[in-house]
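Today's session is about reading a structure prediction critically. Students often jump straight to the picture, but the first step is always the sequence itself: look for stretches that repeat, for charged clusters, for runs of hydrophobic residues. Only then move on to the predicted structure, which in these notes is written as discrete structure tokens rather than atom positions. Here is the chain we will use throughout the hour.
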Amino acid sequence: MPFCRECGKKVDDSWLHCPHCGSQQPIERQSSVLIQDSVVTNETNITIYNDPEIITRGVIAAIVEYNGDKNQSQVQLPQPSKEVAKSMIPRMSIGERFALIVRCNPSMWNWSAEIPVLGTAVIPWRTRLKAGSVGGGVPAVVLATKGGGVIAAGRSVGPIRVTAGSKDNNWRQGHKEKGGSHPRLPLELERIHIPFASIKSSKVSHLINRQSTMSWITKEEYLELMSLKY
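Below is the predicted structure for this chain, in token form.
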């Protein structure tokens, strides 16, 4: 039986106050709560744990049981929806914007007919960025989808403008309409090659999952990405 810390007399560990001096008694937090109820549990003891480690092990065990006979390293935790995942990404401040990463789908657009093997070419690139948000001289890298890696790099050479297109363009069949009138940012590009595998194993592997056709990256991300070229 414990003793009161104020008057030193014996007290019960379930008492909130000392009956002798009235001082409040410290309450020790229990890591578990034992429930015994013969009516509700049919004389079965239920222990509810508040230990985070025990709770985590319990959750993993439940997922393992749900997924079948798999070890814990094979358990696939539920992935958030695209909307939730997008809301989890910290919003980049204007001061952090340094360069643009541009996605190119080779199955939709014949980029090799636009970007020469030697030298540079200015390509008006479709964008959903707001007019006035990008000027000239902004570094840009072109990332091919479907494991193509970085295929070109350069810089912007003017502001975003709505430009008229034509049916005679290098969009592949079924995507010719994308060559029509649309806001575009002129990019002066030259061919480079950074393998997909190099990006995937780097500090900027998260850039592979970018879904926007054109989006901002930080200076640190740009320099890290371009360092993979060597």
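Discussion point for the tutorial: The longest strand covers residues 182-194.
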